[in-house]
Amino acid sequence: MEEVTFKQSRVLLAQTTLLEAFQTKDDADIDAALIEWISISNQIPSGHTDHHHILASLAIAHLLRWRARKVFEDLKRAISLLVQAISVQEPTPCRALYENYVNLGAAYMSQWEHLPQDPSDIIKALDAWEKAYKISLQIGRSDESVGLSVFCLESTYSFRRHT
Amino acid sequence: MILPHLGDAYCFAYLQKILSEDSLPMAIDRYGIALQSVPAQAQSKLQYKIGKAYSAIYMDKRDAADLHSAINYLKLSITGQVSHEEIEDAMMEISDLYMCQYQEKKAREYLDAAIYWARRAAHIQYEEGLPRILRKIASLLTVMYKDFLDRNSLDEAIECYKQVWARRETHQLEQLSTFYFNFATALMRRNAILPNNHPQKRTDLLHAIQLLELAVALEQGEDNLASSIQLKIAKDRLAYEEQIMSTQTGVNHQIENKLPDQDLPSHYPVMGENQPNSRQPSFIEIQNPPQRGIQPPYNSTSSSPGIYNPGYHQANPNILVQLNYQPMKGKYFFNLVSYLITSPAGEQSRQDNRKDALLTSTQASSSKEKPEDPTSRVPIVDSPTEITSPDDIKPTNLTGRVIKTSILPAAEGGFSSIYRGRFGTTKVGKSHSFKALRLKHPGGD
Fold first, then answer.
1. DSSP B210-225
2. Predicted-complex ipTM score
3. In this structure, which of B198, B290, B297, B385 has its CB flanked by the most CB atoms within 10 Å?
4. Do A133 and B2 touch (CB under 8 A)?
């Protein structure tokens, strides 16, 4: 059995806190998850193979706090992290890429709703979701429910939790 | 599933005008793919969205195929699991679409269908939206009265307005002054066709005056022009009727400016068997609409060529519509689309009524110059069906005189003159009044 390293155990712990925050939606849990993922992201070098996972998880934590407290900086940071995660990710269709595009589209729509004077966010959301849809066809998840999502825009758009 | 969200985003893009006109077909495509893979209980929501998208496309392009698709999908959606609000909205959308068809084809079955679906919407247990639906029903019934001289429709329209009136303190009424104006105008229409000795005649007029006073008080500045004119007309008419009554009975009737104390029904039987328009239209019997005939001055709404429509801007009919009814503004997509679609039909009554009021603006202004203008005291036609077409009156039937009063203000270039006259017709043996437009062409009159 492979030994779990200290870093791996920290990531597992951070995943747990994120899951807890996702489920409880409690401010303290969200803050705890955010602190954990910020700490991990500072320790993982940008060239690491799991870097995009860290970025995506941190983005989810920011999105959770955005939904809870409506601090716009969280939304902007989440979009930036998701764009960065997608850019460092292999373009090969996979579930992680699909979820990042889904969340990025939802984040753009949320940003448009917050700043409706800039409708270009809708185009960005459409672009992200179209890519997500194409990936879903390739990985056989086009029919998958997004029921495990964090609802944001008046129950219309959703953030998928990165697993 | 990402597809419904994609469809929604395309719809938002359409509303924001940031994509080409293909955005709605793209939305329908995405919804349609999703429709094939969702369970039956989840299909209604998508059918509703597809219907709304087709409806919006139809409003843009006026392609009958889109209209039929919209109606079909919306009808499918109301049988499934969607919210009361969405069912009501779907039914009102169907009503609007049939109204559009009616406006294009002028066949009565489409107006019947529009009324039928609006009535069905009133049955949805969505109390919050009921006043809006009742106002829509009243608006459609008013069209039924104006276009087909269906007296029952006018009575029903007034009953609908009374239902709204009864809810004015418990519900948030949008565009309250518009409601007062339309309600008052409907009462004035009925006043105009009731016989002089009918007890309801005076009550309607008093109620109309009070409503118009409320409308004038609510509106500011130029916005109350139509209401002010209509109020003056109503008061003039009341004075005239009282003068007639005084002549006949010797009793001096003073204006009692109070609302009639009548018990309003708790709920209007919108689908009762005794309602003439409660049946679902069969689309089998197509009745030829009767000719409009010559209307009393206060009901002059015909836009037929050659019939005088004073104050109605021939080149731009919308120029007189100053108050836009925007009940859904500020809400998100589907309500916005709803506004875009419901507005033309929903505002029909308001626009027509505004038109009616301004149609008579020349009469009001001329009465300032000539308080004794004989045409402002034209007897009301007891039964407007006696003359069903202007063709029924031949020059040889007419007696009376015509005077030129002014230039039609809305007709640019001064080619049109206003003539007022009082005629009798030997054909029916009664006096009628009408207004005529004398057009001067380059080659002669």
1. HHHHHHHHHS-GGGGH
2. 0.85
3. B297
4. yes
